[in-house]
Amino acid sequence: MTSEMDHPFVILPEEQAPEGAAHCELCELAKQRTRVIWGEGNPRASMMMILDNPGAREDRQGNEFLCGTRETLQLGMREAGIDTNDVYVSYLLKCRPVRAYNKPEARAACSPHLQLQLLQKQPLVLFGFGNIVAEAVFPDKENASVKELRGSWYEFQGIPISFTYHPLAVRRRPNLLRFFVEDLKALKEKWEEIQHGRR
Ligand code: SF4
C-alpha cells in the first residue's frame, strides 16, 4: 500500500466550468479538448495561481493522473510552506491543447473567462507561472519575462500579482528550484500580509 510519505502529492479537485463556459467554442481548442477545465483546488481560496493551460488529468486508461507541472508546483508549495487547501489554480486557456493552434487567437478568445473568474472570486493575490502568463498580463510590454519580473509586485485587474518560472522549466533546469521556492515564499508572505491588513 502506498503511504502519504511515499507519494506526498495530491490530485486537486477540479472545479466544474459554469454552464455558460462548459461548452465554449470561442476558439479552435474546442475541437481538441476533452472538456473545459475551469480550475482546480479550493474554489473559495483567496490565493490564485495562473498557469498557461491545464495539463493532462487522466492517463491513457482514463485513470486520474498528476502531470509533471502539478507535481513540481506542489513540491515548490510544500517547500514554501503553502497549504494546498489555501490555493486555487486556473489557466489562461481553459482547454488543454494537444496539437498546434493559433496561440494569440486562443488567448484573446479565452481571456474573458479569466476576467470573469477574477470578478467572481476576487482573490487577494495572484501568482503567474512562466513567460506566457507574464506576456498575457503585460501585453504592452515586449517580451515580458519572468526573469525580469520575479521578485516584485504588480497589479492585474486591481489585484496584486507576481511571477515565477513555469514548473516545467524548473523540472528541466533543477537549478531554478531555489528561485522557484523563494518566489513562492514571497507569495505566501504577501498573502499573509494582505490578510492581516484586512483584519
Ligand atoms: S480555450 Fe477558452 S476560448 Fe478556447 S474553446 Fe476553450 S474555453 Fe473557449
List descriptors.
binds iron/sulfur cluster, 7 strands, 7 helices, disordered N terminus, 199 residues, 7-stranded mixed sheet
Structure, described:
By secondary structure, the protein is of the alpha/beta class. The protein has one domain (14-194): Uracil-DNA glycosylase-like domain (Uracil-DNA Glycosylase, subunit E). It is globular and about 40 Å long. The model is unreliable at 1-5 (pLDDT under 50). The chain has a 7-stranded mixed beta sheet with strand order 1-2-4-3-5-7-6. It is built from 7 helices and 7 strands. Iron/sulfur cluster binds next to helix 3. The site of iron/sulfur cluster has 14 residues, from helix 3.
| SSE run | EHEEHEHEHHEEHH
β-strand amount: 5-15%
* Major sheet strand order: 1-2-4-3-5-7-6
Sheet with most strands: 7 strands, mixed
Number of strands: 7
Stated plainly, the CATH topology is called Uracil-DNA Glycosylase, subunit E
Integer average pLDDT: 93
Radius of gyration, CA atoms, in whole angstroms:
16 Å
| Low-pLDDT residue spans | 1-5
Helical content stands at: 25-40%
The CATH C-level class name: Alpha Beta
Ligand kinds:
iron/sulfur cluster
Number of separate helices: 7
Oligomer: single chain
